Amino acid sequence: MPSLLLKVPLIILTAVGYHVGMTPPNPPPSKEEQAKALGGRDVTFRERLTRLVPFTAKTIVATVSAIEIAVALAKLNPTSPASTHILALFCSGRGGAMNLSLSAQSLVGMGLVCLGGAIRLACYRELGRLFTYELTLRKEHKLVTSGPYSIVRHPSYTGGTILAVGMTICELGSGTWWTEAGIIRTIPGQALAVVWGAILAYSGFIFRRAVGEDDLMRKEFKGQWDEWAARVPYRFVPWLA
């Protein structure tokens, strides 16, 4: 039971960290700013998903987190009428026997989500108005090479990947509502798993997009970009990629 008391605030912290890391810090750019970056090319279907996918992911995380918090609180007070209804509704008949706990896997996942969210937030602050989810060239655009951008060239993508991996570990580890209640064996659970899998697959798009961003910045800033790339040769992880 003590682990359940600790689990609730940690779930909240993790959900907030994920929300912050997956929320665009600026409104969508103008069509002119996007057109300048695309060089006359049409916006691709994948580019059009750059806000829908994070919104969908945040909705899933918020929903699952809220349910897990409700179930944890119900387990702490199982005799109340409200708890009985919650456990019956969300636990597939396993409410009393379900081993909801704070496992090592969950702690690792939560730590990764907080780390990924912190990296993304640092990138938001460093780029300011220049940070957009769409490929964009702002008016008076400048090349930012400080803060996390002095370590790798695309740290926000690194942070986003850490967020995705961390949240997946959070939910698939032992002791979670998703695992212990056997949600994956239900039709809604399977549908949710398919959507989450599609979100993870879409995340692979960012690695290809980073190449295009490098080409765009090299064309726009020329020698300044070359100097930065020589000083910061890695896109995502120092000494690896």
UniProtKB/TrEMBL annotation:
Catalytic activity line of the entry: [protein]-C-terminal S-[(2E,6E)-farnesyl]-L-cysteine + S-adenosyl-L-methionine = [protein]-C-terminal S-[(2E,6E)-farnesyl]-L-cysteine methyl ester + S-adenosyl-L-homocysteine
Membrane topology: Multi-pass membrane protein
EC id: 2.1.1.100
GO molecular function annotations of the record: protein C-terminal S-isoprenylcysteine carboxyl O-methyltransferase activity
Cleavable signal peptide: 1-17
Keyword Ubl conjugation: no
Gene Ontology CC: one annotated term: endoplasmic reticulum membrane
BP GO annotations: methylation
Protein name: Protein-S-isoprenylcysteine O-methyltransferase
Subcellular location: Endoplasmic reticulum membrane; Membrane
UniProt record similarity statement: Belongs to the class VI-like SAM-binding methyltransferase superfamily. Isoprenylcysteine carboxyl methyltransferase family.
Keyword field: Endoplasmic reticulum, Membrane, Methyltransferase, S-adenosyl-L-methionine, Signal, Transferase, Transmembrane, Transmembrane helix
